[in-house]
Each structure stands twice: as C-alpha cells, then as structure tokens.
Amino acid sequence: MIEPVTMPMPAAPRTIEEARAILAQDHGPRLTLMEVCGTHTSAIAASGLRALLPTSVRLVSGPGCPVCVTPSSYIDRLCELALQPGHLVLCFGDLIRVPGHHSSLSEAMAGGGQVRMIYSPLDALKVCQDNPNLTIVMAAVGFETTAPSYALLLKRAIAGDIRNLRLLTALRRMPPALDLLCAADNAIDGFLAPGHVSAILGSKAYEPFAAQYHKPFVIAGFQPTEVLIGIARLVQLCRREKERQAEDDLADDRDWSEIVENLYPAIVRPEGNPRAQAVLAEVFRYEPAVWRGLGEIDESGYRLAGDFAAYDAGPLEAGIEQELPGCKCGDMMLGRLEPRDCPLFGKTCRPDHPVGPCMVSSEGVCGIHYRYSEQGY
Amino acid sequence: MLIQLSHGGGGGATAQLVQSVFAGRFKNPYLQRMEDSAVIDLNGPLAYTTDSFVITPLFFPGGDIGRLAIAGTVNDLLMMGARPRFLTAGFILEEGLAIADLERIAESMAQAAAEAGVELVAADTKVVEGKGGLYINTSGLGPIDSLHPVRANLAQPGDAILVSGPLGDHQACIMSQRMGIQNGIQSDVAPLNGPVRALLDQGLAVHCLRDATRGGLTTVLNELAATSGCAAELEEAAIPVRPETRALCEVLGLDPLTMANEGKFVAIVAAEAADQALDILKQCPQSAGACRIGTMTAGSGVILNTRIGGRRRLNIPWYEGLPRIC
Does the structure's ipTM exceed the value 0.85? Predict the structure, then answer.
C-alpha cells in the first residue's frame, strides 16, 4: 500500500470546547454534510447547533424520519381498516396526524374509526388477548431500529397462539436508501450516520459505501454534545479526505474503513446486533418499496415471510404517489434543498396543513425547521 | 354503587346523592342555605374566571380531577394578583361512575379548597349516558388587592424571569399513566396561594404572573412577550426539569418546555426585586425549586441559549406533542 503524504489524521474532539474550536477554525470550500436520521435533525434544531456552524459548513437532512417516508396509500389503507367493523388499529402517536390522500387517522377516529395509540409493539399482545372478537391491525412503520420488535411481536404471537393480530407493514431498510443518496447528484461530502439504525446494522455496514463513493461516515449519539462532536469530527474527516483526493489518493488498495468512524461505541458495535439481525432474517424478506418523496427503491422494504406471512394485513395497492405540484420533499430528502428553498414552506405547507411528507411528523425536516424557525407563528 | 341516570333526575335520588357525597364535605353558610344562588358580599375590583376539567385517568399520582379543578381555578385568580375567595362547581357525571370514586374526588376537592382558603358556594350535578366518566367545571371569584398591578402587558426589558420549580411533571405523569409506563413521576397539581401571596404581600415589583399550564413555559413566555412588546431570553442550563421527566421526554421525543404543569408559575419581576423574589419563593414548599431562568430583552419572541452554546427560538407548539416511533 502506498503511504499517503497527507497530514496525519487529527485527533477527534472530546469536549464541547474542542468541537466548537474545530468548527470555529474551519475554512475552505463549502462542505455539505447530511444527518440521515430524524432524531439527529431534531437534536440539531433543539440545541440551536446551527448557530455554531461556520459559513463553510452546511447541514442538510436525510430521509431518516420513518413517518415521513411512509406512502400516503398506506395511511389510506389504515384509515379504511380503522373504519371497518370488527377492526382496531394500533399505532405510535406520531402516525396519528399524518395525512393520506383522503384523511388522517385522527380524522378517521373523529368519524368513528377504532384507533389506539401504543408505546411498544409488544403492547399489541395484551390488546389482542383483551379483544378476542376484534382483528387487531398493528401499523408497523419504522427502520431497522423498530423492525426487530415487530419480528419479536409475531414470534410471541405464534408462541401464545394469538390469531387475531395482523401487521400492515411499511418497514424500510436504510442501506438501499443510503446507496441512492450517495449516488444522487446532491454534492454531499459526508454523512452523520443514524445512531439507532447503526446499533442494529453495525459500523461496518457503512464501509462499502465509503469504499464505493469515497465519502466519510461518522456515527454519533443523540445528546446535543454527541451531535456537536460528531459534526466537528465529520468536518475533520471530510477536510482530510478532500486533501487526499486532491492528491489523487484514490488507490484501490486504500483502507476506506478509516473514513468510517464510530463515536457511539457504547451502543454501536462493528458487527451490529447479531440477534436482531437474525430475527429480522427469520421473519422478513426484502421487497421493492415506495418511499414517500423518493419513489420506489429496490430491496428497501421488509415483508413478512414464511409462516409469518399469515399475519400480513395484505399488500397496498400499487398506487403512484402523487405529491401536490410544487412539493419539494423528494429534493429535500436527497439533500438537494433545504426547507427555506421550497416555495410552499411556511405558506401553503404548514404543520396544520402539511402538503408534503417532510412537514407531517415531529421528525420531518420541514416540520422541525418550521417549529424552530422565526416563521413559527 | 354506580351512578345511574336516575341520580340526575332531580328527585329523591339526586337529593340523596348530593347529601351523601357533597353536603358533608363542603360545609359553609352559603351552601347550607340550599338556595338557587349564593349571596355574597365583595368589594371590587374582582377577578372572575372559569375552567373545565376533562382528564383521563381521573386519579393519578400526585392528585385527581377534583384537586385539579380547585387548583386550576384558584391559580388563575392568583395570577391576576387576586385573593381567591369563592368557587362554584358543576359536575357532569356519566352513568356507570362509581359513587365511591365520586366521594374520593369530593373529599380531595374539599381538601384542596381548604389549602387554598376558598369556599365552594354553589354547585350543580347532572348525569348523562356514557361510560363512567366525570367532568368538572369550576368558576372562581376574588378581590384584587396586590400593591402593584399584575398584568400580561407589564413585562419590560431588563426584568428577571423566574419559574417556581421543575417543569413538565404533570403532563409527563398523565402520559405515563395513559401509556402504562411505570415510573415515579408525580403530577405537581397544587393551589399556589403560598408562593404567589408571599410575593405579592411583600409588595415586590411583580410585573406578570402566569401559571404554566397547557402549552407549558414556551407558550406562556411567548404570550407574555408578545403582549408586553418585548422578548424573553432564557438560559437552557438554568431551566429546572427533573431527571426522570427529562428521561421520559427524551425517550418519547417530547419537549418538557411545552408540556403542561398544574402547580408551577412564571413570575416576571423588576430586576432589582429578582433576588428577594427568588429567596421568598425558595422558602415556600410549593416553590422550593424556584430558579431564575432568564431576562426580558428588547425584541420579540422567546430565545433559548442552549447548553452547548447554541441559540434558537422557542415557538408555540402547533399541537400537543405525541410520542414518536424511534
């Protein structure tokens, strides 16, 4: 392997002060960094972290809000089921107000639909036992982080001979979406990788992307300090990588794993969580799936497989996702635009009247920007 | 014994219910006359308010709907610089409500009223079809006798912003109960006569008072800032939130600064009175955790200086927060 002549890797910041110093001293061509996960987007906004970024660093948000990427047709189907006699829909709170094409679950409830908010997928078991005459439809939405608990729920349902449970699935896999993000013409220089998803997949999951697309990944926790340190580290890695690439240091035998850094080692291991991975492999198979705002991505959905398919509430009608004209959510999730670049933001598209998916959830980028910006009313 | 529709018929069953549940617990000359109205004698100016209480569950750690119905109305009077004196209560009972529960609630109301030094001078009970629910409306009256006027539009740049204790506990408690989450979080529901009257009776230059109920601190400060035509600037590190409440909020993706309290208030006081006001609050049991959290400044809105050195606006939430997926 050819020894690089570039500067040695600088030490990672360990404190708020060190991280702030790195950001304050940064200069050079503009870096665009993407935080993939909605929880990171939320932490960045809540901690006022943007005020600490130099003009040379721009943060954009990715498609890491599970509610936002859930297709409208899925919400429509949930509403139909909620209104069907003998059915009770269970879901997490942040799905309640998400609009489908026709209505939201909140509106379905007002019209007599049976919907109950739960805290953990496993709560569904008791609801099934308490209501043997109802078909309990669990709205299974989320990424790798949440999918294992649905898998566990079904294994327990089978073990307990519970038969009145169905899952309407819109579970999504992050790696195929990351691949799309890396390949898109969005000028993203580096990624703040989603901490919870990484706990399942492991830090090694990012190495193929680093190798193929030559972009650094930093895995960080969700405390404001962790996010700040993660972003400062990502800036360091991106600057160094730019320098190496300027020296044409793209040798095939380079060890690209060095630009994937795990700053959340207490939770994220290199191999991830093998038990969660095993249960996912047992219960689900991959299928092409539609992401609201991004379209269909191959192998990006989880579908119940084998014996577990008996619990499937059925596929959605393969409708085309019609977003309203002018909605820029797709560009937003690919990191091409920021909320203020969208002509609808804060005007026709507001939390009380969301036009696109990024405005609907507490972790959607437009909703977050609206809540924390001066445009909030 | 359960409440039945006949308990609302106005006949013997109604009279018996009123006698057995309410009459013994709310003894005062006004009620004992059992007339169509209470006749009271008060000199103005008076503060007069009403509020309705609809909460599930009816009983929760730290309180119940009865205590809430007294504290809520008493606190609204206090926030105007008034001395709460008289309350009325309207009960809407759904059939199926256990009479034992109603008795517990009446007992709790009587206790809270005694704490707050108010008398329940008129009441009404109705029964409707339903599933054992209970709704209470209370209204309250009290003379305003503070030395300085206390109004939402009197905050000025330079004034100190105080809160009377840790935020978010009431809503965190109710959410935990509704979601079946086991923890030690208790509602802070309490009448605030002690700390508020201590501030007012000292004659301190208190400009605004507001209890941080629905919408939490964020909503209250936005309203006070807008009405007074200035801004509020807060230091995140100075805002008190109990560790257990903070942990619950982090897990569920909620913001304790927008969550409801039922026994906490914001006081905006002249800069020179701030230290004394804080000392007084810390000596009252209900506001022992009081803190100075920021300063009113020129400008508009509410600005938060965060722990990591960032800065952002606190905007009024559009909806009540709902727990998130991951």
Answer: no
